Structure formats: C-alpha cells, structure tokens
Amino acid sequence: ARNLVGIYRLCLTDKTVNFVKLNSDVAAVVLQLMNVRRCGHSENFFFIEVGRSAITGPGEFWMQVDDSVVAQNMHETLLEAMKALSEEFRQRSKSQSVGTSCGGGT
C-alpha cells in the first residue's frame, strides 16, 4: 500500500481524481473515476474506495479535511462527477447498441 502523507490538493476532472502534493504541479496519484467504487465522509474525514483496476490496486484513501461541511461537500461533488460519468457511459453504450441493432434488414 502506498502511504500518501502530507497536504494534498484533490483536483477533479470529468474522468479523474488527481492527488497533487502542496507546492507541486505534478499529480502524485491519478485515479480514474470509473475505478472509484464508492466515496463518503465521516465527521471531518472524506474517503474514496477504489477497485482492483485502480493504479494503486484496491483500497481506500482517507483524507482529513477542515470540518464535516468540507467533507460532505467533497463527497457530494465526487458523487455528482461519478453520476455524470456513468450517465455518459450508459448513453454511449445505448447509442452503440442502437446503431448495431438497426442494421439494414432487407
């Protein structure tokens, strides 16, 4: 297991969560959103659970944040990004299956 100790920024894109150590421009860890199994918060902690396909292997990342409001906001923000990604994935697979099933039936 990799131990990320210190102060990190979490940078969220539409497909990844990047852990960037303070005073660095390079991400120490880049997690694909599709590898995030779940996320949540408890008091002033926020966590992300990833599966086997993650670059780190399966496990959890627990982050201490300023307070429970920050933890809840991070949880909700990541959930929204995960939902948007799964909807995009569902739309894409639906349009692909429609495209293949509508082949000319002459």
From TrEMBL:
Q: Name one Pfam family in it.
A: IRS
Q: Where is the IRS-type PTB domain?
A: 1-89
Q: Which CDD domains match?
A: PTB_IRS
- NADP is among the record's keywords: no
Q: Which UniProt keywords apply?
A: Phosphoprotein, Transducer
In this entry, which stretches build a coiled coil? none
Q: Which GO terms describe its molecular function?
A: insulin receptor binding; phosphatidylinositol 3-kinase binding
Any single GO BP term: insulin receptor signaling pathway
List, alphabetically, the GO terms of the cellular component aspect. cytosol; plasma membrane
Q: Please name the PANTHER family in this protein's record.
A: INSULIN RECEPTOR SUBSTRATE, INSULIN RECEPTOR SUBSTRATE 1-B
Recorded protein name is IRS-type PTB domain-containing protein
Organism whose genome encodes this protein? Nothobranchius rachovii (bluefin notho)
Q: What is the lineage of its organism?
A: Eukaryota, Metazoa, Chordata, Craniata, Vertebrata
Gene name linked to the record: Nfu_g_1_005277
